[in-house]
Amino acid sequence: MAETIVTVGIDIGGTFTDFWVFDGQKIRQHKVLSTPGNPEKAVLQGLKELEILQLALIIHGSTIATNAFLERKGAKVALVTTRGFEDVLEIGRQNRIGIYDLHVKKPDVLVPQEGRFGVTERMDWQGQPLVPLTQEEIEKLGKRLQSYNPEAIAIVFLHSYVNGVHEEHVVTSLRQQYPYVFASSHVNPEHREYERTSTTVISAYVAPVVSRYLEQLSETLGSSLRVMSSAGGYMSAKRIIEQPAAMMLSGPAGGVVASFELARALGYERIVTFDMGGTSTDVAMIQGRIPITRDMEFDHLPLRSPMVDIHTVGAGGGSMASFDRGGNLRVGPQSAGSFPGPACYGQGGMTVTVTDANFLLGRLDQDNFLGGKMILDRNATHQAFQTLIDQGLKHGVEMTDVALAEGIIEVVNAAMARAIRRVTAMKGVDPAQFVLLSFGGAGGLHAADLAAMLGIQEVLIPPDAGTFSAQGLARSQAYADALASVLKPTHDLTLEYIQDLLEKLADKTVKQLADDGHRAESITSFYHLDLRYQGESYEILTPWQGTLKDTVDMFHQLHEQYYLHKELLTPVECVNLYVRSIAEMRTIPLPLWQNSAAAKPFAHRPMVFKGESLSTPCYRREELSADQRIFGPALVIEPASTILIPPHYQATVDHYGIIHITQ
């Protein structure tokens, strides 16, 4: 790894596949249209166009696992569980989706009833066998599975998080015939039967898709390939295949990593990340560290796996606009994707999207989109708007194309503002106390208006904002993690017990990283405790402070921040210990902005703001100088994104080329 010259971050999105390249001196960025039916094709095409031929470290983020799950294109899974618990996956929790919705539909169960197999065995809550697992029972299971013929198997026995020996026996037996066998004691070794079952089943469900995809890429890229995990660090392809659910938020995690590195370099402690791409928008809150959670849901199914705490909404540049039966304007979550894409792409798309609305309002340059690689089609845009206007008339809504375009922008901005409030206000913090860091190909067009809606005073837009998530992949570090269940009150635990168990978990993660080729001296381990008040259902991930007392004190502070109260007289329970280890291999500095001469507008274009057309100067971002100030309205264009500075706003460029927008 020390000989690596080129570092490449590759992020596959719904519309574009982004590349960010650092060769030790220069930075390059690149975009190609995504190829959803064959995603590795876009990856290999982009690498060929960039002429990445020499030794490289390629860190790749992809939605391949998420897409397989959401589109229900995963494997045929068999669930093997303790007899009597076959229906845990279908029963779920008592929580209801849309409690007042008379037509609500429960998510599809990933394993049908005929695919669930009960086995006679039982552990008690302390991990002591109550009913032994016999070889005869394992052989019976093998015969029953043959008739079902699964592609992957999930094994979830009761209390295996304390003692997984029964699961290990079944894995050993079945691995001879089935390549994808996952035991819950390895995938998610903690209590809560439903969540542990769901997590293990999701891992098995996406495993063959992830494995085939990475094997195809590895045939071409070989040992250069690394894969971004949902937890904000990368793994070898081999380790990802062993825990495929770690790819569920692979791409979006890169944007949060890049935001954290940028915030740290600029001295910002509180950042809200805003990543608006072609299909969706991802938001996260950073307070001095990358936010990690293990409590996520995908399509209302729980997934207990370490992930960057990101909230996603179906609002992007390709989100399609329509009128519902009541005549209300809707935007998203359906997206036009990369093909046919928005109407303005001129590829046959006939539905108005957010990108078309921005184009009609003059906020996209017809001749300089994607650095001039794509000429936007004005006639196709007007035709699509006329179709939508006619649809509105059928519902008694009469609007001009300009009013309709501004309405689309307002609706999509409202959806994205709700997403940001969810990761800030719903966690006890005021978004107005943060800085908004905007990236993604479409983010710069909406960031200033979004900040105004939330009371945020400053917006940061880094260079290469359209490939910022890919930059985060390139800046990420290798990581490994481990977890152990405790489930005891903190007053029953000793410091020696905690330290000994944390060290064992750390040794496990260090070995994983060492097996991937990382030196022990480059590895740093971070310790956490999952704590809760006795009687509570869910815990707070609390950084280890060196002593139990100090860690419990930190928990009280976090509980008060999240829930506005703390219970100093209520016993605190330790649910799990969690260790995350990072191998720091390289540092990619923020490059200084080289331009010194202030740029002049290359054109003035009419743009619409609140129904009024204003002559607006357009600048090329690469021509801006450090310390240059621009007054709105103005448009700043770069190859992968466009930045709008509305009226009454101003923008300044710092010595890293980052644009700061304020009122």
Automatic annotation (TrEMBL):
GO terms for cellular component: cytosol. Residues 8-176 form the Hydantoinase/oxoprolinase N-terminal domain. InterPro entries: ACX-like_C (IPR049517), ATPase_NBD (IPR043129), Hydant_A_N (IPR008040), Hydantoinase_A (IPR002821), Oxoprolinase-like (IPR045079). Residues 196-477 form the Hydantoinase A/oxoprolinase domain. Residues 496-662 form the Acetophenone carboxylase-like C-terminal domain. One of its GO terms (molecular function) is 5-oxoprolinase (ATP-hydrolyzing) activity. It holds the Pfam family Hydant_A_C. Signal peptide: none annotated. GO terms for biological process: glutathione metabolic process. It comes from the Bacteria. SUPFAM superfamilies: Actin-like ATPase domain. This is N-methylhydantoinase A.
